[in-house]
Amino acid sequence: MTLKTLWHRLGSPRWFYQISRPWIYVLGILALVLLVTGTVWGLVFAPMDYQQHDSFRIMYVHVPAAMVAQSAYIVMGFAGVLLLVWRMKLADMVLATVVPFGMSMTVFALVTGAVWGKPTWGAWWVWDARTTSMLVLLFLYFGLYALRQAIARPEAAARACAVLAVVGMINIPIIKYSVNFALTLHQKASFTLTEAPSMPPEMWLPLALNVLGVYCLFGANLLSRLRLEILRRERGTQWVRDLVLSGSA
Amino acid sequence: MHPKRRNRLFSVLFLFAGAGISVAFVLVALNENINLFYPPDKVVGGGAPVDTQIRAGGMVLEGSIARVGEALDVQFVLTDYQGSQFPVIYSGILPDLFGEGQGVLVQGRLGADGLFRAHQVLAKHDENYMPPELADLKGLKNE
Amino acid sequence: MSFDSFADFIAMGGHGFYVWFSYGASMLVVVANVVVVRRSRLRYIRELTDMARRQRNAEAVSHS
């Protein structure tokens, strides 16, 4: 299939509904295997840190959640552009369905950050650049959720959410570079694409597994939420009726 | 690309750039105006207000950590390794990352006697994680 | 294995609460995200199936 036909087919929710089903299983099983391995490894077998001792194990759940919370927002930002410029139906569905997952991951990252911060920094919460910009991310998710509820006309709601999603993208580089600002308690990135990790393999490998696992989970979760959203929006159509009557929905 | 779509793409980019530039200005302004903490030379040299809530920071001087009186009272000296240093007294549980040579922030009041009474001690950490055995080999302290 | 005994493992060097709270919460978030979608999907498909069946029966009646 050429790129151009793929592009046109993405405009068809029905086509997407049909091809996406096996991917949920592939990604879901991958997520389960990666997350279980990474978590058990990190919790039981990885050595403790020489300064933080065992509380450093919180990293194995905190970092993947914080990463996927930002990536989920980036996905919404791009979906926002696709919706505003190309009016793609699927883009608005993505915009609507990523919100609950991203919101839950942001809340989780903030809560585990507090629980990690108390024993290591000495405070549950500090108003520094990284924590504050993550809080802004949470409020952006809240905003996107509330905006959709507040506007009755679906088309107007879609556009308003897309605009907010695109404007909110500004927060992403701020979160990323906030740890390089003059004063912050938060350590720098544990993982970057360009540099070797600053810890030995037996410490970063479980983290890598959990990061990959949580991205697979995001993929599987997004697809299953999208399929439900497609059924909701196309419920009056013949193909949905045939699908549910044949029992293969 | 369809001209209508191109126009819409430009408006989206314009919106994003406009919002981005305004946020950047706000951040630059904030970064210049916020006095995040008083370094040791300000605290010693009278640059920090006495008997008001302030935040001060510095490195914990080696060999200066001492327990005083009750179990949780601890006294230590914060220094910038450039001749300025001041004593801090704190009562409470110290964070894991607190230790000799570590950068810390203290929140509390500076007394007229030059003693800083902290009600909160915050420790900073870098991104270098290490197993204890490796840290021993590298000669890093491991409490 | 970086722990000497099961009690050490639970204690996490005195940080048991912080570590176990975080891992417990992570389980909760992952499971909740999966279960919520699954349940609402099953419920919605049941609703759709009922609706489609009723419609089909109504059509069958009007044709006869």
Q: Can you lay out the helices and strands and say which pair or pack?
A:
The complex is a heterotrimer of chains A (249), B (143) and C (64).
Chain A: H1 3-9, H2 13-45, H3 59-86, H4 89-120, H5 129-150, H6 154-168, H7 171-178, H8 201-233, H9 238-245
Helix pairs in contact in A: 2-8, 3-4, 3-6, 3-8, 4-5, 4-8, 5-6, 5-7
Chain B: H1 3-33, H2 40-44, E1 53-60, E2 66-67, E3 73-79, E4 85-91, E5 103-110, E6 116-123, H3 132-137
Parallel strand pairs in B: 4-6
Antiparallel strand pairs in B: 1-3, 1-5, 2-3, 3-4, 5-6
Chain C: H1 6-11, H2 16-63
Offer a few descriptive terms.
heterotrimer, B: 143 residues, alpha+beta, OB fold (Dihydrolipoamide Acetyltransferase, E2P), 2 domains, 6 strands, C: 64 residues, mainly alpha, 0% strand
The biggest beta sheet of chain B reads: 5 strands, mixed, barrel
CATH superfamily of the largest domain in chain B: Nucleic acid-binding proteins
Helix coverage percent of chain B: 25-40%
- How confident overall, as mean pLDDT of chain B? 81
- Gyration radius from CA atoms of chain A, angstroms: 20 Å
Q: Explain this structure to me?
A:
The complex is a heterotrimer of chains A (about 250), B (about 140) and C (about 60). Helix content of chain A is about 75%, strand content about 0%. In chain A, helix 5 runs antiparallel to helix 6. Chain A is an all-alpha fold. Chain A has one domain. The model of chain A has no long low-confidence stretch (mean pLDDT about 90). With about 140 residues, chain B is α+β, with helices and mostly antiparallel strands. Chain B folds into 2 domains: about 35 residues; about 80 residues, Beta Barrel (OB fold (Dihydrolipoamide Acetyltransferase, E2P)), CATH 2.40.50. Chain B is built from 3 helices and 6 strands; from the N terminus they run H-H-E-E-E-E-E-E-H. Chain B has a 5-stranded mixed β-barrel. In chain B, a hairpin with a 5-residue loop joins strand 3 and strand 4. Chain B is elongated, with a radius of gyration of 23 Å. Chain C contains 2 helices and no strands. The termini of chain C are far apart. The model of chain C has no long low-confidence stretch (mean pLDDT about 90). With about 60 residues, chain C is mainly α. Classes of the chains: A mainly alpha (about 250), B alpha+beta (about 140), C mainly alpha (about 60). Chains in contact: A-B, A-C. Chains A and B meet through helix 3 and helix 6 of A and helix 1, strand 6 and helix 3 of B.
